[in-house]
Predict the structure.
Amino acid sequence: MASSSSYNSPCAACKFLRRKCMPGCIFAPYFPPEEPQKFANVHKIFGASNVTKLLNELLPHQREDAVNSLAYEAEARIRDPVYGCVGAISFLQRQVQRLQKELDSANADLIRFACNDIPTSLPPPPPHGIVNNPVQPMPPRAARPVEFSRRIGNEAGGTFYQTPSFPLSYPLPWNDNPSGDMNEGGGGEGHM
């Protein structure tokens, strides 16, 4: 980044602090005159002397990232003085948890609907009087595995084995509560 002092315009930091912007100003590459609020926020939260000390302790290639982090945290602190960016992170984590529960519920519904779409009745047995029946009777439906991979869109080719006439004897892995009630515990909303 070019120093703003070469244009005879002080950087945002020097302008805010009402001092002359020298050619070696440590703030000039990171606080251009077009972004005065960026430095104002950083100065209000961290103080100019603390930012100067921090930038002097860092290697030159690390300074831009440090200034961007300071500016982000300062803006978050001004918006939310108590929690700052931690409040935004917590909000997003709760939102991810809520959406994960919704996704898990939708997957459970999808598997349940896929199980209900499979006919459970067997074809009628062949008449007793026919001896030379070229069609062999099918084994009972409960003895054959049921493949859901194409039905529920599993491109990985996985197979789900379940006998349609028997309920699951174990809790589903995406269900947090042992009773199986999807609405138990607040309707699937994230709680911390």
Q: What stands out?
A: The first helix runs from residue 12 to 17. Residues 10 and 21 are 5 Å apart (CA to CA). Confidence is low (pLDDT under 50) at residues 1-6, 142-170, 182-192.
